[in-house]
Design goal:
The protein has 243 residues and is of the alpha/beta class. 47% of the residues lie in helices and 14% in strands.
Length: 243
């Protein structure tokens, strides 16, 4: 039975991704940082359905915590076949109002977190010459967003990391891809008013916001054998918002 470690897995896109992998029979490591009860509830739901899930806590910006998390997952499930780097933060702020702490925090979680988690799982993947990594970027990492400069820059860095790592790890049989979601109806956009959401829908050819399940299914495809010849790519489930 294969094992997937999903970061930022207790809610939103992460939760939908957990449920997708669990439905396909994966052992699922449900990472969280602050949402402990949500993670435990999710694991309990999976267990009730006959699946295997483990809640693991770590601040992904801390290398030691990530290494401890990876060891825990390996101890329980034996190995990690798939890593989904979904943990992330967002912030809307004028560039001229950004502080150095704002910038550093954004990159510590959204970029350094990916770096730490990849480094944590890769020794096992490389030794087996098999594995898959899916990094969650953003459509704003492709085209940039006003008042989200540091977020856009961090998500663009994830795309650059993905492409470079795919070239480095390909000879070891490890695939690395990225998903760059458009505007997705999760807690991350809870601050948007209805007028703004309506305007986004009007600017989206499919005339709706994305769902967490839309993104989860894209991630699941990239981790599947059906995507066995796909690496170093960025797929953007955005309803045509950016083409």
């Amino acid at each position: 039975m294969e094992t997937v470690l999903i970061t930022g897995a207790a809610t939103g896109i992460g939760k939908a991704t957990v449920l997708s992998f669990a439905a396909d029979g994966y052992n699922v490591a449900v990472h969280y940082n602050k949402s402990e009860q949500a993670a435990l509830n999710l694991c309990a739901d999976i267990a009730q359905q006959g699946g295997r899930a483990l809640a693991v806590r770590a601040d992904v910006s801390d290398a030691a915590q990530v290494q401890s998390m990876v060891k825990r997952v390996n101890d329980v499930f034996g190995r990690i076949d798939v890593l989904v780097n979904n943990a992330g933060i967002a912030q809307s702020k004028l560039f001229t109002d950004l502080t150095e702490d704002d910038w550093d925090t954004m990159f510590d979680v959204n970029v350094k977190g990916v770096f730490h988690c990849c480094q944590g799982v890769l020794p096992g993947m490389i030794s087996r010459k098999a594995g898959c990594i899916v990094n969650v970027s953003s459509v704003w990492g492709l085209v940039g967003a006003s008042c989200e400069t540091h977020y856009s820059a961090a998500k663009a860095a994830v795309i650059g990391l993905t492409k470079a790592l795919a070239k480095e790890l390909g000879p070891s049989g490890i695939r690395v891809n990225a998903v760059a979601p458009g505007v997705i109806d999760t807690d991350m956009i809870a601050g948007l008013n209805s007028e703004t959401c309506d305007a986004i829908k009007e600017d989206t050819p499919l005339c709706r916001l994305g769902t967490a399940e839309d993104v989860a299914q894209t991630i699941r495809f990239l981790a599947s054998k059906n995507a066995g010849f796909i690496t170093g790519q960025v797929i953007s489930p955005n309803g045509g918002f950016v083409i």
